Amino acid sequence: MPKIPDIVPVTDLRQDAAAVLARVRKSAQPVVITQRGRAAAIMVSPESYERSEHERQILRLLARGEREIAKGKGYDLDTVLAEADESLAERS
After folding, report:
1. Number of structural domains in the chain
2. What's the rounded Cα separation, in Å, for the pair 52 and 91?
3. Looking at residue 2, what is its pLDDT?
4. 78 and 51, same structural domain?
5. Which of 5, 35, 72, 79 could form a disulfide with 40 if both were Cys (CB 3.0 to 4.6 A apart)?
6. Pairing between strand 38-43 and 31-35?
């Protein structure tokens, strides 16, 4: 069952931004900022953002690989594994 997102109206954010930031850091879960009852922004911790961007980059590379395979292009396994190891080392 998906977790119900933490929702904070923009007026509450204006009044006590430090508390909202502390909540984001402590929970590592996104906080939905609403304005006039509608989602206006999502606040996430820097760690969550970086992890999400890294995962998105991996998905883009996988999609590119799938397209290249479909076109009959490709790389040998040793090259791919070396690039993967380099990418993982950069993340650490």
Report:
1. 2
2. 12
3. 60
4. yes
5. 35
6. antiparallel
Confidence grade of residue 45 (pLDDT, cut at 50, 70, 90): very high
How many Cβ atoms sit within 10 Å of the Cβ of residue 4?
6
Strand segments (E) across the chain: 6-9, 31-35, 38-43
pLDDT score for 91: 76
Boundaries of domain holding 21: 6-44
At 50-75, the pLDDT tens digits run: 999 999 999 999 999 889 888 888 77
Rg (CA), the chain: 19
My answer on whether 30 and 58 are in the same domain is: no
- Longest Cα–Cα distance of the chain, Å, equals 57
Cα(75)–Cα(30) distance, integer angstroms: 38
**CB distance 42 to 30 below 8 Å:** yes
Residue 1 lies in a domain: no
pTM of the predicted model, to two decimals? Answer: 0.62
